[in-house]
Amino acid sequence: MANASGGLAIWLEFNPKISLVKLAEAAEKNDLYLPKTSLYQNRDTCAIRFGFGHLNEEEIEIVVKTLKNAYDATLNL
């Protein structure tokens, strides 16, 4: 995890072997929308800029759990 510049956000780095598009699709099946503008994937980078300034603590917990479930589902594809 690295720092994202500007606002309340974190930079989530993933194994470059996973597809962030597939991760976003798996998340959306569980009502978590990841806009394509927050996905950064190329040969050297596989990361999501996750902004959380508008979320309360309970919402952040739900998002993190949903994202983890989507990640696990993506690994099993």
Automatic annotation (TrEMBL):
Which Gene3D superfamilies does UniProt cross-reference here? Aspartate Aminotransferase, domain 1
SUPFAM superfamilies the UniProt entry points to: PLP-dependent transferases
**EC numbers for this chain:** 2.6.1.1
List the Gene Ontology MF annotations in alphabetical order. L-aspartate:2-oxoglutarate aminotransferase activity
Keywords for this protein:
Aminotransferase, Transferase
Superkingdom of the source species: Bacteria
Q: What is this protein called?
A: Transcriptional regulator
Q: Which organism is it from?
A: Jejuia pallidilutea
